[in-house]
Every structure is written in structure tokens, then in C-alpha cells.
Amino acid sequence: MIKDKEKENKMEEELNQAKEEPSPQSEADELKEQLKEQRNKLLRALADFDNYKKRVALEKQQFLQYANEMLVTELLPIIDNFARAMDAAQKVEAGDEMTKGLALIKKQLEDVLRKHGVEEINALGKPFDPNFHEAILQKEDDGPAGINIEEVQKGYKLNGKVIRPSMVIVSKDKSKSNS
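^ thats the sequence. predicted structure below, dont judge the formating
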């Protein structure tokens, strides 16, 4: 009887072990699922890394494009002063050589800035656009309203980005102010 009980206990243990051990099919399914999860994690990590590389490349490109913005902004008043010096030299009839020299230096400076992505904003005769122009005054004019009729200070863009808007005087309709 003891032997029968021992046999019975042994059979129960084997049965329990068989229940606890997964079958080869379920173990393979579990491993396939884990492999699928790991593959998805890897693909996500690769996509994240690819996005990171693209973002860093874009930031680097933008940094290089606009790295000189502060320097260019500080050089713009010098260009303005060259234009004023040329106007003054012509008014006081300074030598022709001096006027030509100032014009040559101004042109060289403008060429260097243009080479590095700086361009003037053309404002005269164009409709007022607050993205490119800063209105400092309105004057009555015979033409249509909202047109830049005078440019007080030139505006500039660096690689398409406005770094200094044009200061302009904008026309307003004469007929509306007479009523």
C-alpha cells in the first residue's frame, strides 16, 4: 500500500511537472512573440535615431546660415553711413575721386554681404507689407493708398529672413482726409 501511495505521488508529481513545463509549441510561440517585440523595439530605435540625425543636420544647417546674423546686423549701419557720406560728398562737391572711392568701398562691402546671403529689401513703390516694412509716417499722395512712397532706411534679409525691416513712409488717400 505504501508502494502504491508512493507510485501515486510520483505520478502526481510528474503530472504537475508536465503541466508546469510549457509544451514545445507554446514555447516556440512565446519566443516568436518576444522576437517580434524586440524587432519592433529595434525598428523604433532606428527610426528615432534617423529622425535625430535629420534634426541635427537641419539645426546645423540653420546655425551655419544664421551664425553671422549679429555681425551682419552690426555692419548695416556702416553701409547706411557710407550712403550718407556719398550724399554729403556730392552736396559739398568734394573731389570726384573721393566720391568714387566711397562708392567703391560701399560696393565692395555690399558684394561681400551679398555673397554671404544678405539682400536689400526693395520697398519704394511697393504696397506696404508689415513683414518687410516698418511704417514710420503716412503722407497724403495722389496715388493709391498703402504704397511706400519714401524709404527712410533700407531693410535687409539674410538668407530670406528679415534682419532689419525697411523704414518707410506710406501713402494715404487725399480724398479721405479732405472730407
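Residues 120-179 form a domain with the Nucleotide Exchange Factor Grpe; Chain A, domain 2 fold (CATH 2.30.22.10).
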